[in-house]
Amino acid sequence: MQIITDPAEMQAISENLRLQHQLIGVVMTMGALHEGHLSLVRHAQKKAGIVIMTIFVNPTQFGPAEDFERYPRPFEQDAALARAAGVDYLFAPPPERMYPEGYHTSIDPGPMAGSFEGASRPGHFMGVATVVVKLLNITRAHLAVFGEKDAQQLAVIRRVTGDLNIGTMIEGAPIAREADGLATSSRNIYLSSDDRQRATVLYRAIQYAGQETDRGRHDLKAIAHEAASLVHSVIGSTPDYLCFVDDETFVPAVEAVPGKAYRLVMAVRIGSTRLIDNWRFVCGEHRDA
Ligand code: AMP
User: Side-chain half-sphere of 129: how many Cα atoms within 13 Å?
Assistant: First the structure.
C-alpha cells in the first residue's frame, strides 16, 4: 500500500492507472477506522481492481461548536488496518493541501441539504459535497462506495454527482453494527460505559418500528412518535429528530403507501456525543433487518 499526501501526485497516479485500463474504486473516510469502513473496502474490492482509501478530517463539514479538534486521528493504526484490508493507495492529505491560501469554491447541494443533519449542522452538506467532488476529481474513481449509515449524505452525494454529471458510480453499502445493534462509529469511543449501554436504544427504536410496520401499520408518523418516546425514556431527552422520510427525497412521510420505500432516520444526543442511525423499509415487502 502506498501512502500519498499530495493531491497532484494522487491525481497523476490515478490518471496513469486509468490509462492502464484499471477500474478504480474509492472509499472516503475521516479515519479512526472500524468495521464499517472496512466493509466498504470489501464492497469496493468486489467491483474494482484498485481501491483507494482517503482519510481526511474535513474542516469545512464541522460546525464551530462541533468536535473537529477532538476528532480521533490514530493515523498509524489506520494505515495498518487499511494495509491489512488490501487497500492499494491511502490518500491522506493535510488540510492546507486541500484548501490552500485563496481557496474559495464550494458546492451548494440545494434543498435536501437543509433538513435533518443539514438543519442540525448548518453548512455540513456544503462541506461534504465540496470535499467529495474534490476527492472524486483527485482520485479519478470509477466507483465510490459510501455507507448507508450516513443515508442523507449518500442521498446528497447521489444528487450532486448526478446533477453535476460527475460520472462516478455511487454505491451504498449496508450499516455495520456491533453485536448489540449499535451502528459502528468513530464517535462511539466518546461514550462512557453507561452511555454506551444507553446507546443501544437507537437500535431498539428501529426494531420497534420494524415490528410495528410488520404488523401492517401504515401510520408512520405515529410509529415514529412512539419510537421517540422509547428513546426519551432511556436517555431522558428528546432526539434531535426521529422521523420516517421518503427514501429518495428525504421529505417526511406520514402514512406509508404500499410499494414505496421509506427510511426511519434519527439523531440522538447521549451525554456530549451525537449518534445517528437509520433503517430502510419498503411498505408491504417482507423485511430482512
Ligand atoms: P466517516 O469516517 O464517519 O466519515 O465515514 C466514512 C464512510 O464510512 C461513510 O461512507 C460512512 O457512511 C461509512 N460508515 C461509517 N460508519 C459505518 C457503518 N457503521 N456501517 C457502514 N458504513 C459506515
Answer: 26
